[in-house]
Amino acid sequence: MTEHQDEATPLLSVRGLCVRFGNGNEAVDALRNLSFDLRREKLGIVGESGSGKSTLGRTILKLLPRLATISADRLDFCGSDIGKATERQMLQIRGSQIGMILQDPKYALDPTMKIGDQIGEAVSLHLGKRGKEKKSHVLEMLESVKIRDPQRVYELYPHQISGGMGQRIMIAITLVAKPRIIIADEPTSALDVTVRRQLLELLDELVSARGIGLIFITHDLDLAEGFCDRLLIMYSGQILEELPASSLGNAKHPYTRGLLASMPRLEASEKRLSVLVRDPAWQHSVHRSIAQ
User: Is the dihedral of CA 149, 141, 164, 248 positive or negative?
Assistant: First the structure.
């Protein structure tokens, strides 16, 4: 896909995506018949723990264990069928074209390596830079994610930085290769409110400036409503509802409405929160995209 292609053209087009773990009678369907498109936008994937959000992110990058079986009618990334891509081909896509920001930097960053060296690895791998040129680019990346005093941070180890700074480092590593898509898996869950807002502002700025497609995985409905452009509501490995983030309050599916009703709100008059009652029929729901 060229840089000048219509912005309405999907970066990622998924149709009939299924993931199964195991074989025979013990097999478990983790994702069931998912269909959606991702454009240059912030697409929120929302649902309870265990609904399949993170599995979806890892499936796109084909980072699932060997016992997983992936099938899809279409899994198209910028004109390439990544559903049929070999591991060698995926190595050319991961990081360089589709990046991933993990939930907690203290587990994602190598505790034995300085921050500058960890970003430098990505610079060497994706851009082929060495020596002074590599260090200069690392410092530029630290500045791009609004790290103060990049020279000092370059020499620090992960245990010497805050959680918010760690997430900025993760974003810097992800952005080195200028990927077309970023998958952010609960990137703000370990951050306080102020740092969370700063990180979201940074992601929003990067998506707008670089024309990136962002898949934002979260269980926080309020956060998704305020930050994302569009939402996919997941339950038991399925997409039950798709709607603009600004229309979340007008959601129609009883699952989405149940999630909203179970959230505490200062202006609510009820003394007790609603308890979500799950309908077995949801297991067989058919998702119809309002975007199609």
Answer: positive
Max intra-chain CA distance, the chain: 62
2 pLDDT higher than 50:
no
CA distances from 69 to 34, 65, 130, 248, 283 (A): 15, 9, 39, 33, 20
pLDDT single digits (tens) 52-61: 999 999 999 9
Quote the CA–CA distance of 100 and 170 in Å, as a whole number: 9
Cβ 226 vs Cβ 233: under 8 Å: no
Say what the pLDDT of residue 10 is: 93
Can you list the alpha helix ranges (DSSP code H) found in 157-266?
A: 163-175, 193-210, 221-227, 254-261
Under DSSP, the state recorded for 278 is P
Q: Are 171 and 144 in contact (CB under 8 A)?
A: no
- The per-residue b/e assignment along 129-163, b for 16 or more CB within 10 angstroms, e otherwise, is beeeebbebbbebbebbebeebeebbeeebeebeb
If 0-12 CB within 10 Å is exposed, 13-18 middle and 19+ buried, where does residue 61 land? middle
For the chain, which residues make up each domain, given as ranges?
A: 107-176
Query: What are 61's two structure tokens?
Result: 């990058």
CA distance linking residue 264 with residue 250, whole number of Å: 18
Whether the Cβ atoms of residue 47 and residue 234 lie closer than 8 Å to each other: yes
Q: How far apart are CA 159 and CA 149, in angstroms?
A: 17
Predicted model pTM: 0.88
| Cβ contact 96:116 at 8 Å | no
In this structure, what DSSP letter does residue 54 have? Answer: H
